[in-house]
Amino acid sequence: MNASYADQIATLGNGYVAALDRVINEAARSGRASEAAALRDERTRFTTHKFMPSIDPSGLHSSIVQLRNTYRSTEKAYSKDKDAKSLPLYDRYIEVLNGLEKELLAQGKSADAARVRVKRDDVTARRKQRAAKVSSSTSFPAQSTTGLVSLFDGQSLNGWRTVGDADSFTVINGEIRSTGRRGNLIYIGANSVAPVWKDFALDIKVKCSDAANSGIWLHIPDPATLINRKVSAFEINIDERGKGDTGTILAAVEINTGAPMNSQLEKKRPFLGSSKTLPSGGRFDEWQALRVMARSGVFTVWIDGRQVNQWSFPAGWAPPADKDYLQTFAGTIGLQSGTGVAFKDITVQML
Known about the structure:
Layout: H1 2-29, H2 33-49, H3 62-106, H4 110-134, E1 148-150, E2 160-164, E3 169-172, E4 175-178, E5 183-187, E6 200-208, E7 213-220, E8 232-239, E9 249-254, E10 287-295, E11 298-303, E12 306-312, E13 332-336, E14 341-350
Antiparallel strand pairs: 1-14, 2-5, 3-4, 4-14, 5-13, 6-10, 6-14, 7-8, 7-13, 8-9, 10-11, 11-12
Helix pairs in contact: 1-2, 1-3, 3-4
């Protein structure tokens, strides 16, 4: 099945290059030199990286946008078909893991059974993600939704999944509190099917009780994959160690380690500098209102109503060939563990 999908994508890529060649020749014959040059650049980009970005930079020639959209719609159809065909395989795998867990429990091997149970839960979460992509309905708001969605009920971690240390987050007095243990808290919603958000505004209140270093994740892919492979996301830093770094934007960060994955997607510190007069900087035991907006590849951060940072993708950027797992374009949100950090009043609004 995977080989068939790979063949489909390879054929689609060849068709895209052929379409580019055809339009390049048409533009050249008609004397549209600038269009032909732009199309040649697109051909070079695609044949080098074998990657189709989900976001087009402003000013991209309309003929390229049209070809890209055709590619994307076809790729989406192939992906949906692949996901549909994978569901019976997931069901069989889950059945096998259930049987293995029961067998281990009968043998008194509770530790081994617990490890199998974790694996089964991971596979079950992946199946839910695949099924959600195949289904035409979902419990999450579409991109056109305008109302606010509350992500935290103030009483529990319902709708969230901890990845890493199970004790890295807790709920006390209506706040999500990080214990400092290594872990991330990922929003997966009431039905455990993580939303795939692209353009949205996230509002969240943050409080640090000491010189904390934490963060807010954006555009996280399927959280079930965090256990077994490298994944990337954007991080909005929460850093109250006196340098005014709260609001820093780190693009393409490896979630499990916090390490940057691509130097071209560089760290962008708040443009207000490190002055103590910043809305953030050594502010302990008081709530700060953070607002983060992702729109068409542009990321903007406000603290207490004051814009402190903005970042956008470099023109023509694509993941490097050795890091094709980079995914920075859409996904759910999450919180990074850090000693003495609390979160509350978490809402998201689609744009």
